[in-house]
Amino acid sequence: MINIYLVRHGKTMFNTIGRAQGWSDTPLTADGELGVTELGIGFKEKKIKFDRAYSSDSGRTIQTMGFVLKYSDNENIPYKFDKRIREWCFGSFDGGYDGELFDGVLPRIFAEKGKSGKIRSYEEIAEAIYEVDTAGWAETWEELSGRIMTGFHDIAAESEKVAAKNIVIVSHGMTIGTFIKLLRPDLPRAYGLDNGSVTHLTYENGNFTVGEVGDMSYRKLGQNYLKHEK
């Protein structure tokens, strides 16, 4: 059985000013770097040794992984990038303000279709973004959900093949939320996962089991350690 520590990347410039990052990219802020330093220290304090590391190919996840591996004393382990676990692509809205897309454009689309209420499924949101994207970059729900599921499954299967016990994966907020919802449709939508949070999963014989979603205890442990060090 593999223990999977699925991390949302550290806080970035776009996260801070409320922009939809998607496939566009900005670096971690100073606070973001501190947060994932805390996370790495938290892993170290828990004496977690990783066998393998994976992230999307986005700069913010790569930067996050560097801090996590360094401060958890897990450097020099096998590390791979996988573009299938990137964030959603928001098409022509990539880099735009969250409010413009999620509180403006999408509600208008749903209203035009006669759909009331604010809570929408990931599938409805994905299809609405695809519909209004003028650049032709956004993914259909089938493309989006398919690449997320196969990406995480292939990572886990590869790790199982080499008898890994603990792996760390750095991905993105909506991608992680989508993956959890695909695995466990009965769970509430994991909206607003904190930067540097950890979602626990296990994998065995082709099956995932979902544990705690959005766990901040590792960061808090690292934060307490740094306070005492000062």
Describe it for me?
It contains eight helices and six strands; from the N terminus they run βααβαβαααβαββα. With 230 residues, it is of the alpha/beta class. It has a single domain, classed as Phosphoglycerate mutase-like (Rossmann fold). A six-stranded mixed β-sheet has the order 3-2-4-1-5-6.
The named CATH superfamily: Phosphoglycerate mutase-like
Let me know the number of strands.
Answer: 6
Give the SSE order as H and E letters: EHHEHEHHHEHEEH
Biggest sheet layout: 6 strands, mixed
What is the count of distinct domains?
1
Radius of gyration over C-alpha positions, nearest whole angstrom: 18 Å
- CATH architectural name: 3-Layer(aba) Sandwich
Strand coverage percent = 5-15%
- CATH class bucket: Alpha Beta
Strands of the biggest beta sheet: in what spatial order?
3-2-4-1-5-6
How does the overall form come out from the CA principal axes? globular
Helix content: 40-55%
Overall average residue pLDDT: 95
- The N- to C-terminal Cα distance equals 39 Å
Task: Output the CATH topology.
Answer: Rossmann fold
Helical segment tally? 8
Protein name: Histidine phosphatase family protein
Pfam families: His_Phos_1
InterPro entries: His_Pase_superF_clade-1, His_PPase_superfam, PGM_Phosphatase
Could you outline the blueprint of secondary structure elements for this entry?
Blueprint: E1 2-8, H1 13-17, H2 30-45, E2 52-55, H3 59-71, E3 79-81, H4 98-112, H5 122-132, H6 141-161, E4 166-171, H7 173-183, E5 198-204, E6 207-210, H8 217-229
